[in-house]
Design a protein that fits this description.
By secondary structure, the protein is α+β, with helices and mostly antiparallel strands. The protein has two domains: about 1-260, Immunoglobulin-like, CATH 2.60.40; about 260-365, Methane Monooxygenase Hydroxylase, Chain G, domain 1 (Up-down Bundle), CATH 1.20.58. About 20% of the residues lie in helices and about 35% in strands.
Length: about 375
């Protein structure tokens, strides 16, 4: 019988989670137990949204008041998307053959007290992620390693990039926080979370803590922020979103959904033919150089008002302040719209792709005049 303290992470098609907990291994099963001496004094979680995937960096401080002891610490990454269709026989085969790694995790590293450690990977059938808005199934991949806890402060750092298999509308992230209560004292003494997701519209569900529904978020930079009934919606134009909680006792876990770009106009176009047509998928994701004729056909099918809406969107995305109140008020329904009074039509800079789209839209508008 071995004690296992392990950092838990949960990942889905574009989704992941992590934190520390103490477990006991018995007969191949992981059984949660309460650690009574080693305390989690600090956790700093840094999440960065990048074109390659979600970059996760975590810093932990543990305090061991007793003599030095050896434990097995594991970082658990639940199901890859193909797990959903697996039979029990297929899952059992994975459990018994020890997979080399999670199919979507790259550059996993763990450092304990300034020493980079070797690790192994295993597979278990259950996960305990707790969030009302997250409902997935499948097995967990465990990255585990030996840790020598010295008396006093011990520092664990880990880092990886999650490259999801999800499609255009499957960007999400989950993080296991409730296992922090399994350490001595039943809490994370000093919890810090930083989210770096420039130009991303995201909705944050949870975590609940000490009976409170939301974390005390602080926006360090420029963006918009609104509290919904069960979530917080955020758009960061620049800077980061962060929070700090002392004596953190999470009662649910963190789950983040990143709004797909083709939903950016949803507050304006919901229920319209433009939104239902699927054209916005092409507009936000296709290359106008390769799909020029396709865009020309798409735009020919739109009304004059829809063509103008897409042109206006191009400028709204840069922060242009519309002189027509009705247009400005429409875009103010979108959390990503941040009017910039210092901006004028002449100094707006578009990317090569954006300029190509704008040219095609203007060509279609001029053709009708």
């Amino acid at each position: 019988m071995k004690l296992i303290s392990y950092i838990i992470a949960l990942l889905m098609p574009v989704l992941l989670c992590a934190n520390d907990g103490m477990f006991m291994s018995e007969g191949g099963q992981l059984i949660p137990v309460k650690e009574t001496s080693i305390e989690m004094q600090k956790e700093i979680l840094y999440l960065k949204y990048t074109p390659l995937g979600i970059e996760v960096s975590v810093y932990f401080e543990f305090y061991n008041p007793g003599e030095a002891r050896d434990e097995i610490v594991g970082f658990v990454t639940p199901p890859a998307s193909e797990d959903f269709m697996m039979s029990e026989e297929e899952r059992e085969k994975i459990r018994t053959t020890k997979p080399e790694k999670h199919p979507y995790i790259e550059e996993f590293m763990v450092m304990v007290n300034e020493e980079l450690l070797p690790y192994e990977v295993n597979y278990v059938a259950e996960s305990g992620f707790n969030n009302d808005f997250f409902d997935e199934r499948g097995g967990d991949y465990i990255y585990y390693f030996n840790v020598h806890f010295e008396k006093g402060i011990n520092i664990i750092r880990h880092h990886y990039i999650f490259k999801g298999s999800g499609g255009l509308n499957e960007k999400s992230f989950a993080y296991r926080l409730t296992t922090g209560t399994m350490w001595a004292g039943g809490m994370i003494r000093d919890f810090n979370l930083v989210i770096d997701a420039t130009n991303e519209d995201m909705t944050i569900f949870g975590p609940k803590h000490s009976g409170k529904r939301f974390l005390p978020w602080v926006m360090q930079g420029v963006g918009n922020f609104q509290t919904l009934t069960d979530a917080t919606q955020v758009f960061m134009k620049s800077g980061v979103l962060q929070c700090h909680v002392d004596n953190f006792e999470p009662t649910s876990d963190l789950y983040i959904e990143f709004t797909p770009m083709h939903h950016y106009l949803l507050p304006i176009t919901k229920g319209t033919e433009l939104f239902q047509s699927g054209l916005l998928l092409n507009f936000f994701y296709f290359d106008p150089g390769e799909y020029k004729e396709g865009f020309q056909q798409d735009f020919e099918s739109l009304s004059d008002e829809e063509i103008q809406l897409l042109i206006n969107f191009m400028y709204a995305s840069k922060g242009y302040v519309f002189k027509t109140e009705s247009i400005k008020n429409d875009f103010l329904k979108c959390i990503w719209y941040i009017p910039d009074p210092n901006l004028n039509m002449e100094n707006i800079e578009f990317s090569e792709r954006e300029q190509a789209l704008l040219n095609l839209l203007n060509d279609e508008r001029e053709k009708r005049q």
